Amino acid sequence: MKFFTTLFLLGMFHISQAQGTDNKTFAWQGHRGSRGLAPENTLPAFLTALSFPKITTLELDVVISADGKVVVSHEPWLNAKICLDAEGNSLNGKKKEEVNLYKMDYKEIKKCDCGSRGNPSFPEQKAIFAYKPLLSDVVNEVKRYAKKANKSMPQFNIEIKSNPSSDGIFTPEVNLFAEIVRKEIKKLKIQDLTSVQSFDPRALRYLHEKEKEWVLAYLVEKVEDVKQQIDFLGFTPAIYSPYFEKVTFATVEQCHKMGMKIIPWTVNDTEQMKKLMLLGVDGIITDYPDRIPGDQ
User: Fold this and answer.
1) What is the mean pLDDT of residues 60-88?
2) Tell me: the pLDDT tens digits for 243-269?
3) What is the mean pLDDT of residues 108-125?
4) What does DSSP say about strands 70-72 and 55-64: parallel, antiparallel, or unpaired?
5) Alpha carbon separation from 181 to 22, 36, 164, 255, 286 (Å, rounded)
6) pTM of this prediction?
């Protein structure tokens, strides 16, 4: 009984922190901006996310174009489910290799519409014309928004979409990929506002070697032995970011004992958000900023 009372009190503390007036006490992250409400990883999605006061962080993915630009996109190709080509034609039947962003210059990528079709998996998403922006476009647009709204800048959680099977085909070799992203973050002067996350331990190891002070997040699909996973990574990152359904109180406790924050992905149900807050997580990544508990 004492255990459950302690758990409840700990959870209530975290909920009060998350729902308090200081947004920085809990990291509410808009996944791909606000994928449930606007076309993912586009300027409208990021601005929509920022219209919700509790959002502290914009979560986004990056890939590299043929001309070496850092492009905001989940896949390193045009997703036929949500994108049209530069002429407005459907991509159905096209192979990924035929619409490979790593083989396209950015000026060609920008002509492609990845918003007007909507997304069948997210019926509440507003279908509007939207293109894949550069990381620099996102940062500059957010700066303009913050200045106009007289708000402080949000955080950026940038995912490097590298994978051994994509090296040299859909993305640069991993160290080059991570280095291009590293240089762009520094060029944009957002390193103090940024965490970099990846499922690929190779990318995180490279960045940790180059930038010891950067906030890095290890994305994992399976919550196994957390210590074993971190030992495999080779260093203790600032954030452990698992699939939300695998998170338990023991997971949270172990992360905190190891000096890591725990921020699960991707949580789209309000009641599930509340349960995770009770467990003591340090943040939540969601497609739906409008489903965050409490008044927005």
Assistant:
1) 98
2) 999 899 999 999 999 999 999 999 999
3) 97
4) antiparallel
5) 30, 26, 17, 27, 24
6) 0.92
CA distances from 208 to 31, 197, 205, 211, 258 (A): 24, 11, 5, 5, 17
Residue carrying the six token digits 């990883």: 41
Distance CA 55, CA 77 (A): 28
Return the residue matching tokens 């509410």.
28
Are 29 and 263 a contacting pair, CB within 8 Å? yes
Q: Which residue type is seen at 4?
A: F
What pLDDT sits at residue 132? 99
d(CA 60, CA 114): 15
Average pLDDT of the residues of the chain: 93
d(CA 207, CA 182): 8
- Say if CB 83 and CB 110 are below 8 A apart: no
* Best CA proximity match to 277, nearest among 26, 93, 6, 20: 26
| Residue at 83: amino acid letter | C
Q: By three-state DSSP, how is residue 280 classified?
A: coil
pLDDT band at 224 (very low <50, low <70, confident <90, very high): confident
| Residue 294: Cβ-neighbour burial (10 angstroms; 0-12, 13-18, 19+) | exposed
Q: What is the phi/psi pair of residue 39, to 5°? A: -55, 130
CA–centroid distance for 240 within its chain? 13
pLDDT, average across residues 136-150: 98
Among 23-37, 125-139, 190-204, the minimum mean pLDDT is found in 23-37
